[in-house]
Write a structure and sequence with these properties.
Helices cover about 50% and strands about 15% of the residues. The chain has about 260 residues and is α+β, with helices and mostly antiparallel strands. Helix 2 packs across helix 6.
């Protein structure tokens, strides 16, 4: 049971029987609640963060403290499952016209279950994302510049009938429908035009960003953020913790860019 407008796991209850259902509902007070089926025995909890045309799927553990919820793991999903998770995130965002959102999915026995896909203010704090924070900021800059330079405007007409036309077809497999949805999502986000824009107009941006995240200005920002977030007796520990994760990203990004 969850509040319809909830966040940060506030007011979430696990319901195992009728007594727990009634107790949780009574304790919810005036909040509007809804029920969501649990996926028992799942293999992976993933969170897909989407910024414009870009999506990053990260391994996530909501039971961990803030600094440890995202794992630095690049191969925790096979290629097909990873592509499906990305497509689901892009589909949800294109359908609702969301350009900044996160979508949570559970994977069990190779099946992807979307469980939460309406985070209008997704977590992009460095104290949460750590290793993935540079990617998020780069994606935000790229998408903002793309929208500004190309004069991209929000589309108020949701045009949902095109999505339902795919859903209603009996002659298409689930994989075929996913491909159809992905085509609609890529068209809405102008994926090809965006990729060309980044390659031709922002060709040097990765190097500039790498220099910034590896440099003293960002390090000062990191230290200031830790000092404003953690109690004094934990600050030295977490400065070292986050510095290590950012340095890991710098190392990996340097290798990706060819040294």
């Amino acid at each position: 049971m969850k509040p319809y407008d909830g966040g940060a796991w506030v007011g979430v209850s696990r319901i195992r029987d009728s007594a727990e259902l009634h107790r949780a509902y009574d304790e919810s007070g005036q909040r509007l609640m809804h029920l969501q089926q649990a996926v028992e025995g799942y293999d992976v909890f993933a969170r897909s963060l989407s910024i414009g045309a870009e999506t990053m799927v990260m391994r996530f553990d909501p039971d961990q403290p803030m600094h440890a919820r995202y794992s630095v793991s690049h191969d925790f999903l096979d290629a097909g499952t990873g592509a499906e998770a990305v497509t689901i995130g892009k589909l949800v965002n294109a359908f609702f016209r969301w350009e900044f959102n996160s979508c949570e999915t559970l994977v069990r026995d190779g099946v992807v279950y979307p469980i939460d896909y309406a985070n209008a203010c997704p977590d992009v704090a460095i104290t949460s994302l750590h290793y993935y924070f540079p990617w998020a900021m780069k994606a935000l800059v790229r998408w903002s510049v793309f929208c500004l330079v190309t004069a991209r405007r929000p589309r108020l007409d949701l045009a949902t009938r095109r999505y339902f036309d795919i859903a209603d077809r009996d002659d298409m497999t689930y994989a075929d429908k996913l491909a159809g949805y992905r085509a609609l999502a890529d068209a809405y986000f102008e994926a090809d035009r965006y990729a060309d824009f980044c390659a031709s107009r922002l060709a040097g941006f990765d190097v500039v960003a790498l220099e910034y995240f590896a440099g003293p200005d960002f390090d000062r920002l990191l230290v200031d953020t830790v000092r404003s977030t953690f109690p004094p007796h934990e600050q030295e520990q977490f400065v070292a913790h986050y510095r290590g994760l950012i340095r890991a990203w710098v190392r990996d990004e340097t290798a990706r860019l060819g040294g």
